[in-house]
Amino acid sequence: MIVGLSFVGFLALGVPIAFTLAGVALIYIFASGNGILLQSYGQQLYGGLENYGLLALPLFILLGEFMNAGGIGRRLMALALAFLGSVRGGLAYVNLIANMMMAAILGSTVAQITIMSRLAVPEMERAGYPRDVSVAITAAGGLLAPVIPPSMLFIIFGVVAQIPIGDLFIAGIVPGLLIFAAFILVIAWLGRRHGFPANEAMTLTQRVRAVADALPAALIPLIIIGSILGGFATPTESAAVASLAAILVGLFVYREMTLADILPAFTNAARGSAIVLFLIAAAQVFSWVITFENLPALVAAAMQAMTESPIVFLLLLNLLLLCLGMITDPIPAIILIVPVLLPVATGVYGIDPFHFGVVLCLNLTLGLLTPPVGTGLFTAALMGNVRAERLSLLLIPFFLATAAVLLLIVFFPVLSTGLKGLL
Amino acid sequence: MQETSTRDARAMAPALAPGRIVACAPALGRLSRALARIEAAVAGLAVFVVFSLLMANVVSRSFGRPLIWTDELAVNCMVWAAFIGASVGLAHRQHIAVMLLPDMLPGRVGRAMAIAVDLSLLLFLGVLAVVLWRWFDPVGLLKAETLEAFSADTFNFIYQEPTVTLGVSKFWFWLVLPVFCLTAMLHVVAGLAAHVAERGEAHP
Amino acid sequence: QQYRIGLITPPPHQWSKSAEVIAKRLDEGSNGRIKLLVFPSGQLGNEAQMLQQLQTGALDFAFLTVGELTNRDPNYGIFLAPYLVKDAAGARRLLKGKVAQKLSDEVTKFGLKGLGWGMAGMRQIVMAGKVESAADIAGKKIRTVPLKQELDFWTKLGAAPTPMPLPALYDAFANRQVDGMQIDFEGTWNSKYYDHAGTIIESNHMMFPMIAVASGRKWQAIPAEDQVLIEKVMSEEIDNIVAAYAKIDADYLAQLKTTKVPVIKVDRAFFGKAVDAWYAEWSEQTPLLGALEADVAAQ
Ligand code: NA
Ligand code: NA
């Protein structure tokens, strides 16, 4: 009770979420009378980050920095533009398609929104799109990053659930395409509603040049896949390999980057990832305290008592995840939920762990865009200079579209597990 | 908890007389910014080391000479980057917070809330400092004859915790926590001073 | 009275199942007075973090692999000696021997109270390519845990031991970032490592002990009557784990033999001089190894 109130109180006051979580964990320790846990607090705070899979986070953000500095993002944007001539709302679709291509390289929503806000939003504003709507489309596009492989969330899920990450990546492809399709529909509807402008048609020469120009950038996803399948790198290491490729392309192919750009990229990556990593550390310490008090097991038992049907279980799970996704970020939520509910899902209800993982990650991805705790939402608001409250209203149609895809996947497991069988 | 913060504010009021804070604010701000620049460079270096270690892993494995210690070192460098970078985040107020209420309320209340946030952060960091002090227990360590005696007396094995592959004690890495705690306190105090000074200007 | 036991294994694993049995028996044996909460899958942290919580007395019980103790005292690594015992039955006898008892008593120096030795399945080898002799392993990257004793065995064989987090192993093996692994049959079957295997080597070359421990600090505070019950139930169930592995190993091996992957059975001679070289080095580094070998000989 005190714990819940202090949690809400601190958040409402405007105390950073990470410090709220870490502080509330302390309050919980005092309130539960297990003062002895204080002696493990430091080690848990540090140890929450001692996870090999988390190395992907700073590397994906680093990769994003290099893609931006080296002009790779801009080429991908131009490539998308070359395909869509003078369609009404063309730039809005271009934004989404560029996000899709970016998602095949990046695995982190925060990294992707950071780049795309700098690239797409100013361009759309110049072309006469409302700024807040442009930011909303960019933020929604960022949701593709953790669904289309490679994916930070799937890496963390694979690590915690101990299942092959490569197969998880494959399981994300069809859901990612479905979300992409759903977002196209949303943008078409938004275009009618807000009267999106059409952009000038490009000449054939311009188009050919854009395609040729983007070819080196398109190499990067191939390098990622190739380095993993060729036996050179683990999925985590592939982010480092891709960063190196992005540096080389930026320095020697596009020549937009100089050696002087390299050091700031590392500093920016450190600062950007530190905000998220510290949040994860705090969430870990928080989840350790509530696990110690056996709360998650009680929730699992309650869910188990409610139903025998796998579908109902998954629907309940989605409800729980939606609530959880509101107040936490995906990574701490995965760490909180998976050890408790995955055994219930696979053991009691016979749910495929890959299906479970896709549903879980997709659902938690939604939470990235919901207040009060939504890293994606706040990143987009910050980068795009729009109020987070306004942005979350504009995101509602995208939110509903993703929720519809999520329900489709809940009812048709083959959408997540089918492709793995085919390959 | 808000109650605690106000009580705390009252308790601290005489010590932190507004006049003195306003006078200190610019110097504290400069110190905080200079420290943040150094921290950002160190955190960037840590990420560079992570990147290099993973590349070294890829290269050494493909030559059939895998390195044993790289993963553990890379993970610990990442944790260092995380805590040092989190301190920079405090200096630049980049940590994610829910600003719905503070933004909605009038400027005067908003500024008071900003001060309450700083005081809450200080309170947390203060408790964290005590927790870390008791964990590292430097006084107990100095008093103890041997490390073994220290552990046996205190049930605290912090100085005997090994790393798996690096051959150094783990507490060298854990030291980033007290460093984080101190630098974070400095950044928060500088921010608090700036807020109080700002408030003083608003109500002369 | 409520107690907590922490494990790194997931709920379906034998250790986790046994922990549940222990919880049930303690509940019944104490007429509901003793409740034991089971935290599988490393929910309370990895082994190092659990050990620290045992030391402060936050956590009451845990099953720890010998790895975490070996990091702190190389004497605990003597159990990793290659071909120390023939099979799970031999391991069971050895874990009741004098040296095992001595090492169990000595965990007090880590702030623990030993409650008995258990184990996981015997270590085997799964390789991506065809293997006919030890020469086919030389130069290959073999996934191991980063313990000096284990690394040294593979180095002496001429292989390149490659530590790697377990969750990364399936992908790494599928894509040949590693060419093989040291693993038990249980893991080979459950994680489907045989998918990408060219040869499964039934080597039974190493045992992998686990120790059931209580927090030394907490143990002092447990009423004597409950201590007796807990010690009895723990040691019986831990022994059941060890006994169960003879059958678990055999069952999983039988299942693996239904796959297309050839299984070859090898013995100490297969590894040539590597085993002797290992004993020469580690008898010097950890003289207790000699006493352990005497235990084996006495059986
Ligand atoms: Na992606
Ligand atoms: Na959220």
Automatic annotation (TrEMBL), chain A:
GO molecular function, one term: transmembrane transporter activity
Membrane topology term: Multi-pass membrane protein
Pfam families in the cross-refs: DctM (PF06808)
InterPro entries assigned: DctM, TRAP_DctM
Key words, A-Z: Cell inner membrane, Cell membrane, Membrane, Transmembrane, Transmembrane helix, Transport
Record field: transmembrane: 7-31, 51-69, 76-94, 100-121, 133-163, 169-190, 211-233, 239-257, 269-290, 310-327, 334-351, 357-382, 394-415
GO CC aspect terms: plasma membrane
Keyword Transmembrane: yes
Chief location category: membrane
Domain called TRAP C4-dicarboxylate transport system permease DctM subunit: residue spans: 6-414
Subcellular location: Cell inner membrane
Keyword Transmembrane helix (UniProt): yes
Family under the similarity heading: Belongs to the TRAP transporter large permease family.
Functional note: Part of the tripartite ATP-independent periplasmic (TRAP) transport system.
Subunit structure and binding partners: The complex comprises the extracytoplasmic solute receptor protein and the two transmembrane proteins.
NCBIfam families: dctM
Stored PANTHER family: SIALIC ACID TRAP TRANSPORTER PERMEASE PROTEIN SIAT-RELATED, TRAP TRANSPORTER LARGE PERMEASE PROTEIN
Stated name of the protein: TRAP transporter large permease protein
Species of origin: Chelatococcus caeni
Source organism phylogeny: Bacteria, Pseudomonadati, Pseudomonadota, Alphaproteobacteria, Hyphomicrobiales
From TrEMBL, chain B:
Transmembrane spans: 40-61, 73-91, 112-136, 171-194
A GO biological process held by the record: C4-dicarboxylate transport
PANTHER family the UniProt entry points to: 2,3-DIKETO-L-GULONATE TRAP TRANSPORTER SMALL PERMEASE PROTEIN YIAM (PTHR35011:SF2)
Membrane disposition: Multi-pass membrane protein
Gene Ontology MF terms: transmembrane transporter activity
Keywords noted in UniProt: Cell inner membrane, Cell membrane, Membrane, Transmembrane, Transmembrane helix, Transport
Keyword Flavoprotein found: no
Primary localization class, coarse: membrane
Gene Ontology CC: plasma membrane
Residue ranges occupied by any Tripartite ATP-independent periplasmic transporters DctQ component domain in the UniProt entry: 52-193
Name of the protein in its database record: TRAP transporter small permease protein
Role noted for this protein: Part of the tripartite ATP-independent periplasmic (TRAP) transport system.
